[in-house]
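re: ur question from yesterday

yeah so i grabbed the chain u mentioned. its 235 aa long if i counted rite. heres the sequnce exactly as i have it in my notes:
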Amino acid sequence: MLKNVAESSYGTSLWNCYWSLLDGDGKSRWDDAKLTESGVVEAQKANQAWKQQIKNGVPMPQSFYSSPLSRAAATLVITWKDITLNKKDYPTPIIKEKLRETLGIHTCDRRATKCEIARMFPEFTFEKGFAEGLDPFWDPSHREPSDAKSLRLKAALDEIFTSDDSTYLTISAHSGTITSILQVIGHRKFSIQTGGMIPVVIKVEFSKEVEKPTTVSPSEAAPRCTVDPTPAAEL
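ran it thru and got these C-alpha cells back, copy pasting raw so excuse formatting
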C-alpha cells in the first residue's frame, strides 16, 4: 500500500514522527492508504490460491467481513470478485468497524466516511450502527496501545460469534489486526506476509459470566523528530 512506500522512502523514524501525521507529501496521498500495484498483485495471488483450495475441497466461507479501511475492502473485492461477488446467491460482505488497524495519529489508518466507502465499494453492506460522517474513532493526537487493540478485536469477535451462526467465515483485515486476533484466540505467534492468509479453527463457547473490567496501557503520542524531516521531501 502507499503507506508502506512512503515509510520506505522517508525511513521509519521520520515516518513515525512526522510524515505519518500528514495526509500526503504533495506527490502522493496515504490517508486511508490505498493498495499499490504490488498490493493488487498480492490480492490476485490470494484469489488464485482460493480457487485452487476450492478445487481441493476447502469449504466456502458463508460470511465475509472487512475492515472499513479501503485497502482491506479492495483486497476482499479482488480476492472474491469472480468467485462469490459475481453470484447472487452468496452473502454480501459486511464492513465492520472494529476490524480495522491500530487507531490514531497515522492518517493511513483513518477511514473514509460511510458515504465514501459505499461509493467506492457498492458490493458491501455495513454492520448495524456504523457511524456516518468523519471517522469517530481516529484521534490525531493519540495512538491506540496494543493491549487496547486486542480488547477491541476480542469485542469484534464476540459480536460476530453472537450474531452470526455461520460455520465458515472470512475476515479481510490488516497484519496488526490479524496479529491481535491470533493473540486473543490463543494461537501461536505467526507473522503473516502482505496479502497472506491463515486458516484458524475456533471453538466458540458461550458463558453467562460477566467479564471483569480490564485496564489498558495509556495511549501514546507521536514521537519527537530528532532531525528535521522536511528536507527528506526533496529526495
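noticed a couple things. The two ends are 20 Å apart (CA to CA). also The mean pLDDT is 92.
anyway ttyl
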